[in-house]
């Protein structure tokens, strides 16, 4: 009789525990959706402008060099502020930083959309860069905190990486579609409804974080040094083609001096912005170095590949965007369906190497694309190879990088990882586009016809990009090699 009388209590407790666990699980995955939505906006915006550049130039009267500032005005504050706002997110609360960044990014997007002058558009793009940095810098730190268990974390990172990777190519498609079917203003105005919904969801769904407090790590002199150094570095990279070699070298030396000053400051500061012990982590340092080369390869492919389709194969803006769509579809499906499973079985190190092999092979094949080539034979197969490689490599690399940071450094580690993405993308764009243009000009100056010379310039860029990928593969094989079986399990 006693057992019967007491039996409802354990069953009720079990149901309550089960309901509570389900609620927490739902809340975490709902939070992941919100984080992905915010990230998708910033990634879309980084790519959506590319195809619309000629229309913006015609409408607002930009010169050739001046048009580059539509991109540069976004990249410089975005890349320069990631590390700082990542650390501030640890101090004031990552949710606060994320939601404030969403609000600023959305407002700046509207300003871009209604811009009627060059100065207004460039200023609004700079504000977008600030908002994008605030939103992006803290996301990975929030993600690894939400999903501490290795297998769930691998799944969450796979979803997040799929959204980010697909967003890049989706931005190219939307840029072409909106510009051709409506006008270039809508590539920015489309962020308004997305931003409002994402902000409201973030306020409701994301768990509040108090943060450590500004008094515990607000190294403002260090912040000024590293932000100036990063902004100058991005400026040097993206503007290298518009300056002579001497000016570029002097600016690069100044950036190096600022970085040196920052390192000295961090070694002596009582509450450093960036604890130098972070770089003692082989995984964190190695993963960031590999990422610079891998992103340089992929970003260079996306930019030069779009030019190859338009200027060599004669594709329109909409056709170019559509031609890239198989890549995000493949990346999304592979990351969502296979990434976490393969990382759980083989370990992130082996999956990363396999992905880098595929990226290298795809770039090597693309470097053979001729002037009379076809999309189906010469562009699509290499693109799908690189998509499969990126789908394998990016989640594995992200997991390795974030596993090298302590929880209290999650925001700054996330900011650092995102910073190397921007540096890698800027480096790939600057180096590969400059090489392609200079080689084409040299061939045309020597009497070659424009179309074959243009194709040869792009082939040179693809060959150099394949060397980037090969170097990333070699570096990952040596530096990120796991020493124990449990390391391979993430």
UniProtKB/TrEMBL annotation:
Residues 7-21 have a biased composition (Low complexity). It is a multi-pass membrane protein. CDD domains: MFS_MMR_MDR_like. Residues 31-484 form the Major facilitator superfamily (MFS) profile domain. Keywords: Antibiotic resistance, Cell membrane, Membrane, Transmembrane, Transmembrane helix, Transport. The chain crosses the membrane at residues 32-55, 67-85, 97-116, 122-144, 156-178, 184-206, 218-240, 246-264, 285-309, 321-339, 351-371, 383-403, 415-440, 460-480. PROSITE patterns: MFS. It holds the Pfam family MFS_1. It is found in: Cell membrane. This is EmrB/QacA subfamily drug resistance transporter. It comes from Streptomyces rishiriensis.
